[in-house]
Amino acid sequence: MGNKISKKNQFNGENSASDNLSNEMNEEADRLHLQHYLQKNIWQNNFFAPVGHLLEQEDTKVLDVGNTEIIKGNVLERLPFDDNTFDYVFQRTLYVGIPENKWPSVINELIRVLKPDGYLELLESDFKPNNMGPATTKITDARTWLGHKYTVCYKLQDYLEENKQLYDVHCEIKKELNAENAEELRKLSSENFTTVVKTLKPKLASIIKVSNDEYDDLAKKMREELNNPKTFNTQVRVYARKKL
User: What is the DSSP letter of 6?
Assistant: First the structure.
């Protein structure tokens, strides 16, 4: 769902185009696993919706949108599943891949594959950290020119409440990092953020009007700034149930 992520494989011999593609996909898979670790520790749990009892049942079906390793689909169009298939649908950190005007239709598609009385959970972050340093500010401001809407996380609750197919909407917002391993999480979060920024280098360097070397220097400074204890990307998570 979202992007197809391949499992890690071992290759021998010279690198081919397919080898390089596989390496890139493995790197993306690693980044997704890192995101999962970060979110689990930031929130101190794996999910917001009260689905613990469902996950203990063998026949429960769960859809993790954007983070699977098996099936390819496009949530912007139509997922390759029948109506009313899943007991729990979870989606996180897809603000970059979903245009702001597409969110209502994406949510409708997630609801379509959700069973009646099933749970839908969404998690997004504000990609503009609070207490940003100058390098972080320059890079994140440039990202808005790419159409990245840092405010989408603050609209999740409204999206669910305005959808007539849903009920029992809940929202939780985390504005600061107060976990016991906060220092480790800040370091990992800055690495994750920097990785994303590096993939956007050709476009962002052009927008900022800097050379590749200057951009690399900016990214390095940004990484240092993101380790500031007062710097944090606000996190928002919501869940709701599908009406019978």
Answer: P
* Contacts for 57 with CB less than 8 Å, ≥ 6 apart: none
Q: 169: pLDDT confidence band, cut at 50, 70 and 90?
A: very high
The whole-model pTM stands at 0.82
* Per-residue model confidence as pLDDT tens digits over 98-144: 888 899 999 999 999 999 999 999 999 998 888 899 999 999 999 88
User: Residue 108, SS3?
Assistant: helix
Question: At residue 46, what is the residue type?
Answer: N
Instruction: Supply the CATH number for residue 170's domain.
Output: 3.40.50
Whether residue 213 is contained in a domain is answered as: no
Q: What are phi and psi of 105, to 5 degrees?
A: -70, -35
Please report, for residues 16, 40, 118, 122, 237, the alpha-carbon distance to residue 48 in angstroms, rounded to integers and kept in the order given: 43, 10, 14, 9, 7
Residue 64 forms part of a structural domain? yes
Query: What is the total count of domains within the chain?
Result: 1
- Going along 46-128, which residue ranges are E strands? 62-65, 86-92, 114-125
Is 194 in contact with 222 (CB distance < 8 Å)?
yes
- Tokens read off for 127: 């990609």
User: Pairing mode, if any, of strands 235-242 and 166-174?
Assistant: antiparallel
Q: Is residue 193 part of a domain?
A: no
Please name the amino acid found at residue 42: I
Domain range for 74 is 17-134+147-178+235-242
d(CA 77, CA 127): 25
Tokens of 120: 């839908």
Query: Is there a domain that residue 9 lies in?
Result: no
